[in-house]
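FAQ: What does the model actually see?

It sees only this:
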Amino acid sequence: MSAVALLAARRTAVVPRGGAFREVEAHALAAALIGPVLRDAGLVPGDVDEVILGNALSGGGNVARVAALAAGLPEEVPALTLDTQCCSGLDAIRLGVARIAAGEARFVLAGGVESFSRAPLRAHRPRTKGEAPAFYRQPAFTPWPEREPDLAAAAATLARLHAIPRADQEAFAVESHRRALAVPLPAGEIVPVSGVEADSFARVLSPALLARLPLLAGDAAHGVTAATTAVEADAAALVLLGPAGAGGATVVGSLARGADPLMPALAPVPAVAALCTRLSVAAAELEHVELMEAYAAQALVAIRLLGLDPGRVNAGGGALARGHPIGASGAVLAVRAFHRLQAAPGRALLAIAGAGGIASAMVLSRR
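And it is asked to produce this:
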């Protein structure tokens, strides 16, 4: 199989729910990226063989197809939307890589998009005539209610079991915000949408602010708070996949793994371990790491168990400082890694967990 590479990569800013993207539909966020990504790669709309997007909250339909048509791609270009929750954006890229490696396509646009702000309300249809619709926030991720914990509660349990105190979680969040404020965004990473040209959430987290935040879940010693939890957000991220060549970031390998649904935040650990074994490389040897920070506890446990150098993890800040646009988050990691590799060639590890106890991982390289 021929090598596949990320040839171009762009994203919107990540904006907390109810912010500047509150009136922008999900497909419009994704559509805004298609033209710039193609221009970056020197391609035209007719060169695209398929569009694949991850999405979790749009309530069905085919967001990728709507985005492709809105961006002016030819009607002949097929599009597919997939949902593996937080892993969706990275899984869309993995699927695009597989399409090309199998000879089914030459150029694929892949990534993810999410709008918490415009997500539809969801309800279960009444079973009887007199019953009212039952609204719900999220669908089931397992067939067993007793093995489907609240995600914040699961993160707090993880912190307690692995002895990650609240203070360490807060210190990690402070550092994530500090890096996001200190490290300039690479030129060309973000496509302006609605006048927003940079991530808007990063800030200085003072000790006084951290001290007065109430617990979302867990005990006083190990619990999680709003500061150590990534906020709900709107964003899109997109890469162009094609034959490996000069200037791109080659996909060295990728995979997905399942794990215990009771500990979904732990799922990236076996996923990364399995991928590194397959590639005969130690995770600690990889020069760059983009690790999803849905919760500070999750990132800290992964860093510890995988033996990662904290200085190499999310060097420009992570989701705690940006926000978590569910279906786009994995693709945001890929876009960030692509631009990191343009500035500092080497290898980059991407890893993200999803509700229900799943995770996806990928290694990119640019020499």
